[in-house]
Amino acid sequence: MTRLTAPRHEFDFITKVGRIDHAGALAMLQRHMGDREAVFRN
């Protein structure tokens, strides 16, 4: 699994507020980071 570059507090915030399991939060975070990368590339 790839290492996440997002700050730890951001990840904790997503898991607490979203009330979703760790896997769900991870998928959300990875998709979020992917969207930001796409924006920066364009």
Which characteristics define this entry?
single chain; mainly alpha
Describe the protein's architecture and organization:
- The protein is mostly helical and 42 residues long.
- It has one domain (11-41).
- The chain is built from 2 helices and no strands.
- The protein has helices at residues 8-18, 22-41.
- The chain is elongated and about 35 Å long.
Can you describe this structure in just a few lines?
74% of the residues lie in helices and 0% in strands. It is mainly α.
List the helices and strands and how they pair.
Layout: H1 8-18, H2 22-41
Helix pairs in contact: 1-2
Q: Domain count, please report it.
A: 1
| Structural class label | mainly alpha
Order of helices and strands: HH
Rg on CA atoms, Å: 11 Å
Which geometry do the CA atoms define?
elongated
Helix fraction, binned, reads over 70%
Number of strands: 0
What distance lies between the first and last C-alpha atoms, to the nearest angstrom?
Answer: 26 Å
Mean pLDDT: 68
Largest sheet: none
Stretches where pLDDT is under 50 for at least 5 consecutive residues are none
What is the helix tally?
A: 2
Query: Approximately how much beta-strand content do the residues carry?
Result: under 5%
